Amino acid sequence: MSQTWNITMLKSVHLVGENESEDLYGGFEEEYNPAYDTEGLYEDEGFQQALKTSYGKRAPGTSAGRPPGTGFQRMGTAAGRGRPMTGVAADTSQARPMTAVRAAGYSSMGGRAPNQTFDPLNQSKGPAPPLEGKDEDSPEEKVALLEKQVMELIEESCFAAERNDLQMALEKAKEAGRKERNLCRQRDQSQMADQMNLDITYSVLFSLALSYHRLQLWHEANNTYNVIVKNKMFSNAGRLRVNIGNIFFEQGKYSNAVKFYRMALDQIPNTHKDVRIRIMKNIGLVFVRMGQYNDAVTAFEHIMSDKPDVESGFNLLLCSYAIGDKENMKKAFQKLLQVRVDFEDEEKYSGSSDDLKSQLILEAIRDDPLRKWEKEQKAKAERCIMMAAKLIAPVIEPTFDQGFDWCVDIVKGSPYQELSNELEITRSIAYLKMKDFTKATETLKKFEKKDSKMQSQAAVNLAFMYFLEGENAQSDKHADIAITADRYNPAALVNKGNAIMMSGDFNKAREFYIEAMNIEASCTEAIYNLGLCYKRMGKNDDALECFHKLHVMLPSNSEVLCQLGVIYEAMGNVTLALEWYQQFLNLVPTDPTVLMRLGNLYEEEGDKSQAFQYMYESYRYYPSNIDVIAWLGSYYIDAQFIEKAITYFERAVQVQPQEVKWHLMLATCYRKAGNYGRAMQTYKEIHQKFPENADCLKFLVRLFNDQGLVNEGKEYANKLNKLEKNLVQKEQRALSAQRKGSGRSRVGSGQPEKREYASRDSDLTITSPLSSDRTPLSSDRQDSNRSAPRNRPIDASYVDPMGEAPTRPKTAGGHGRPPVDDDFGDDDIGDDLLPD
């Protein structure tokens, strides 16, 4: 039917000629469907009958309430009366065409009802109806919800690990594992096992294994990794054997680590070159730990031939050094110099454009993380090259100079030729470590005609060398040269301040230290020396400020802690001094000087037991400190442990054998302990070694008389008399010489002054354990030149400062004589042999 109709329509096509009017519908007037005849509707009986019976049952037409059109006044035609009834049942919402024939499928009403207004945007329809809600109880929705929860837990575990909250990361990973198992059961129950998401399972297991690994739960991590590796459904899971190898490496099981690294290497294709290189690095490091340096050399050589880098080149050189292969060391050094890490493009960072936007971009990228990383990599490469040169220079050639010359020549022909000057500076420092100051000076003086940077660096080293040698003038001169070459070199300013401070000009030195701090706020040398400068100036508060600032920067520096303790001790703040000294001992528990200072401070606080503990520790670490020895001897004498005191005074005699006071103290301890024979022998040895010591003769005279040995006593009494006469004569000659030389005379009382057992070299102070005052054992250095008047009778009496000695049994030779009083009450010597 449609085909026939189409053919009929084609027959009705009429082409418009040039002289004809353009009537588009002219060709359709001849033949048309009677159902579209609207002019004969009034003559159509069927239509009129239908109109009468259904008038109130249908929607009014668009022409309701209007006069009928002209078409209704026309009489029907035969064709109109014979029109089929199906035309009456047409859809009333479809507007009838106003022409006899209308193109098929189009309507002038636009598909709207007859009484509907024109609304092309459909604004009268209102909002769209709400979307139909999903059924949350459906299996698909339950599975999707569980997958979302699992992924959220994995992300939370990763974030916790990033915050270094490893325990929380493990808990989240375990919870994700439990959720994932629930997800698998839900799929099985919903008969959706074929839709299993392997990526989620892999992520859960991998996150759990990493959490175990971070917490060093080696066994659990290893088991979890094996679950992943042995599951053939996971693609590329074999490379996780690297993680298993890392676990064995951290456990020290190097053989197992090598095994798993090689298994992982076999499963990595050659297209993944970076991954293979990283695994080879791990294998080389394991061989280094195992001491198999030849195998390590093979691994690192493979890396350097395939994809060289600085770390592998440096490790290759170290392994060659370990096996003593000089030629391989040279080759490794040359390979290391061939690695280029010159990331910086100066043109990219130079501000040649006048555009403000370009300038802002340059300012942003000059110090961005990428630029910082580039600088770090370049500094790392230079540091490795410098360390390698210092390591191999003494061994690759017969002499140190030849080895260093070879390294310098190789560096000059490499992309790192600017490091050749640094190597020369390093050579001078090596000479300093070898105590060869002449060669070090010669090497540094070669830089006097170099560029300003190298000249300043060399001058700084020269200034410090001369400072160590005590040549302040030369140190000051080279510090000036360094400042002239580079005014903003903080090291040069610090050396200048050091030279000036040694000359005594603390104010000017302080200015240089402050200037160095202004240039580089973190210059620890300047801050430390400024604190010392304030300390010498007596400005303890300013010194404390410097050292507290330095303590914040260097919290574990023992020198800073010690200086804080010294300053607080000088200020009289014993509590804070003890606190800082204790912090110092936490870092350096074997420092004898600080231990002695703590002992003195606790003694001032009245804590004798703590003082003894620290003094004893100081003596244990440094048994030659005479101050500590004297303190311990005094402590045991006060505690009436004479035998222990003898041990320390014997040590004092060994430390200072030319000091007579320690010999006298030792002899006195023997006598106090009741060992008169040893005491007598010690006094005789003292007299032989120090024949002009009058105190020793007095002891001998009194002891011989005490034992009834009168002849020996008279012999030593005569020696004492002669000695005192000689001493008086020497004193008189000295006085007369002073009168003639200076015209001044000394007025004396004619009485001998009290003599103390003094040291001719230094004044020693022993702290008495009974009080916080320190009793001087020697304060008069002219006691050997003093004597009694010529006519004064010999006084052989003695007052024992340690108390009454035990009564000694009388011998047969003493019968018939009156008992000798051992009071020594009228002898005025040796009152301060021991502390009060």
UniProtKB/TrEMBL annotation:
The keyword Ribosomal protein belongs to this UniProt entry's keyword annotation: no
Transmembrane segments: none
Name under which the protein is recorded: Uncharacterized protein
GO biological process assignments: intraciliary transport; non-motile cilium assembly
SMART domains: TPR (SM00028)
Recorded GO CC terms: centriole; ciliary basal body; ciliary base; non-motile cilium
Keywords: TPR repeat
Region (Disordered): 55-94, 106-138, 731-836
Bias kind Acidic residues: ranges: 821-836
SUPFAM superfamilies xrefs: TPR-like
Keyword Aminoacyl-tRNA synthetase: no
Gene3D superfamilies associated with the record: Tetratricopeptide repeat domain (1.25.40.10)
PANTHER family reported in the protein's UniProt record: INTRAFLAGELLAR TRANSPORT PROTEIN 88 HOMOLOG
Biased composition (Basic and acidic residues): 752-763
Any Pfam family hit: TPR_12
Phylogenetic lineage: Eukaryota, Metazoa, Cnidaria, Hydrozoa, Hydroidolina
InterPro entries: TPR-like_helical_dom_sf (IPR011990), TPR_rpt (IPR019734)
Recorded superkingdom: Eukaryota
GO molecular function, one term: kinesin binding
TPR repeat residue numbers: 238-271, 277-310, 524-557, 558-591, 592-625, 626-659
Biased composition (Polar residues): 114-125, 764-779
